[in-house]
Design a protein that fits this description.
The structure is a single chain. The radius of gyration is 20 Å and the shape is globular. With 385 residues, it is α/β, with parallel strands linked by helices. The termini are far apart. It has eleven helices and 17 strands. The strands form five sheets. Strands 1-5-4-6-7-8 form a six-stranded parallel β-sheet, sandwiched between helices. The chain has a four-stranded parallel β-sheet with strand order 10-9-11-12, sandwiched between helices. A three-stranded antiparallel β-sheet has the order 13-16-17. The protein folds into two domains: 205 residues, 3-Layer(aba) Sandwich (Rossmann fold); 144 residues, Response regulator (Rossmann fold, 3-Layer(aba) Sandwich), CATH 3.40.50.
Length: 385
């Protein structure tokens, strides 16, 4: 069992959550809350996040804690429900008196919890990607995943390079899908790209062949962008292949889990998507500022949990370490934690090198993304293909 972890007991086997619990082995002075979708349809996000946050706490406590105090991580499993996330946020702020909350896992949950964190004057570091979580800036709300607009710009720049001018957009009907659809439609004209068809689908869909047929029948479409974090990422790839439609398929940064490629099988080959550098850590030059941390995180996670590290777990790992850095500087007063976090500069994380400011509560630039593809069932840098 992980010392200093309360709320759920995480097994070392890949993806395994053993039981609900309320135990703690440490009389910790510093409480950090976490809201993750450990179970339910978004568990592919919340599982790695919970395991990564617990791993970070274990490392901090082994090394003497924060300013000599041990850290207690209190994990709440929302199962992806905004209603549960709101209830848990109130509990963590009002009853547990945590210094900060990391998570939730999804954009819809994060938007629901945002006001709770603001009203409770408690730092929330979301592990969800939608740009609207931090734009406009809310005083106590931050996030670790890269911005949707950066992902869209990376995709469009590659399309420009390939002389693609007319596309179809498919997006899930969840918070992440809606936010991505908005960015794609807004930014496409800057790159002289026309969105000929933009369709939203049920994120829980198990068959998207009708949508694929509609896109294929639309004249002039040269490529498709799918924006979701649901298993539909694999389904749309399969349906395009089954429909013998071989135009390039671009996915959002939500594709950064090898399980999606595995679920799509042969249909995943050639998918193009932006993602953080964790997925290609081994191929980075030794002089790259992120490489030591990426290799340390990847090796420790994969050794402990017997599954490939993903960008999703990295979001929580970064968030936990940011809270630790802020508490080291500002102490445990919530307002001072907020101030210290907003003043964090050149913080090397799994997702990139972060520099927050009063106008930027994401803290990353577009170079935190690289374009990747699937080749022989593996993720590689797109230019290496």
């Amino acid at each position: 069992m992980n010392r200093g972890v309360r709320g759920i007991v995480l097994g070392c086997a890949a993806g395994l959550v053993l039981a609900a619990s309320t135990w703690s082995t440490a009389a910790a002075a510093i409480k950090v809350g976490a809201i993750f979708a450990v179970t339910g349809p978004a568990s592919f996000l919340g599982g790695p996040e919970a395991r990564s946050a617990a791993m970070a706490v274990a490392r901090i406590n082994r090394e003497g804690g924060i300013n000599g105090e041990q850290v207690e991580l209190i994990v709440k499993d929302s199962a992806g429900s905004p209603e549960k996330a709101v209830s848990f946020a109130k509990q963590l702020i009002e009853e547990e008196r945590v210094v900060a909350i990391i998570g939730p896992s999804t954009s819809g949950e994060s938007m629901a919890v945002k006001k709770i964190a603001e009203d409770g004057r408690t730092v929330l570091i979301s592990c969800a990607a939608a740009e609207v979580i931090v734009d406009p800036v809310a005083s106590y709300v931050f996030k670790t995943p890269q911005k949707d607009s950066f992902a869209a710009r990376k995709i469009f720049a590659e399309m420009q390079r390939q002389s693609i001018t007319t596309i179809a957009v498919a997006s899930g009907n969840d918070g992440f899908g809606k936010a991505g659809k908005e960015q794609l439609e807004k930014l496409a004209p800057e790159f002289a790209i026309r969105v000929a068809l933009s369709e939203t689908y049920d994120s829980k869909a198990t068959d998207l062949s009708a949508l694929v047929a509609k896109m294929k029948a639309t004249p002039g479409i040269q490529a498709v962008v799918n924006w979701s974090v649901a298993p539909a990422q694999a389904i749309i790839a399969k349906n395009m292949r089954q429909g013998n439609w071989r135009v390039p398929l671009f996915q959002s940064h939500g594709f950064g889990n090898i399980r999606y490629a595995e679920a799509a099988g042969a249909a995943a080959e050639g998918i193009i998507f932006p993602c953080g550098l964790l997925l290609v850590a081994e191929s980075l030059p030794d002089t790259h500022p992120q490489k030591p941390l990426l290799m340390q995180y990847k090796t420790e996670y994969e050794t402990l949990h017997k599954e490939e590290a993903s960008a999703f777990g990295g979001y929580a790992y970064d968030a936990l370490n940011m809270v630790a850095a802020a508490v080291r500087t500002g102490g445990t007063d919530r307002a001072r934690v907020r101030d210290a976090l907003e003043g964090l500069r050149n913080f090397t994380g799994v997702g990139g090198v972060f520099s927050f400011s009063p106008k930027d509560h994401n803290g990353l630039d577009i170079d935190s993304f690289a374009m990747m593809t699937v080749k022989d069932g593996r993720f590689i840098l797109y230019q290496e293909q």
